[in-house]
Amino acid sequence: MTDDQLLRYSRHILLNEIGVDGQERISQGRVLVVGLGGLGSPVALYLASAGVGHMTLVDHDTVDLTNLQRQVAHTMAHLGRSKVLSAQAAIHAINPHVEVSPLPIKADAELLERLVPGADLVLDCSDNFATRHAINAACVAHGKPLVSGAAIRFDGQISVYDPRDTSSPCYACVFPPDASVGETRCATMGVFAPLVGIIGTMQAAEALKLLSGAGQSLAGRLLMLDGRHMAFTEVRVPRDPKCPVCEGRP
């Protein structure tokens, strides 16, 4: 590491659980972030500040005035601009050494099949079940850990789905793809602005732990937040042996 890097990341290096070796693993990490809205904003900013080596950003949307209530990576100056390009600018304003590949396109199965194999881990910051299941399927197929978050109204949730761990469920074990789930969107249901910051920051924390080897991940646990009372509930989530996505996985 250079003197500049040792100084920039000194507060991580001072942590026994991270140290120089852990910080170097972070700096060599390659992450895929799907969704650069309320969750993806803090994810991108904290991973940048921590010095993640390469980030691939995927989002087909553009910055709208209604986004600015909660999507802190974007500013008035970037209204109408692609969210991935706006986020790239915010990332480089914090840390110009982070390599960013911005992809202003929709994350479908074909794209994920190309991108997931090259990532060390994937962060799902999307806002719909179809995309979440497509991301999960790609992560299971290629054995990549997935950090998944969601937030609506005052309610948030986060977990890690790690196919490298034989006891860890995948997203489909917990939320079956054939289940009848009504989509809820911020445009119609609303979302408490700091809630996405809390969940997104926790996603960044789980990603940095996975990259550095620090602590224990949320794999096998679903953490839910009631923002009205600021109360966390943790639920153990086992792997489903009959899951249509990860059944037969070693």
CATH superfamily: NAD(P)-binding Rossmann-like Domain
Q: State the CATH architecture.
A: 3-Layer(aba) Sandwich
What pattern of helices and strands is seen along the backbone?
A: HHHEHEHEHEHEEHHHEE
Low-confidence stretches: none
Choose one word for the global shape: globular
Output the CATH class name.
Answer: Alpha Beta
CATH topology: Rossmann fold
The counted number of beta strands is: 8
Rg of Cα set? 17 Å
**Strand coverage percent:** 15-25%
Helical proportion? 25-40%
Most strands sheet: 8 strands, mixed
N-C termini distance: 37 Å
How many domain modules? 1
Indicate the mean pLDDT: 95
Q: Provide the spatial order of strands within the biggest beta sheet.
A: 3-2-1-4-5-6-7-8
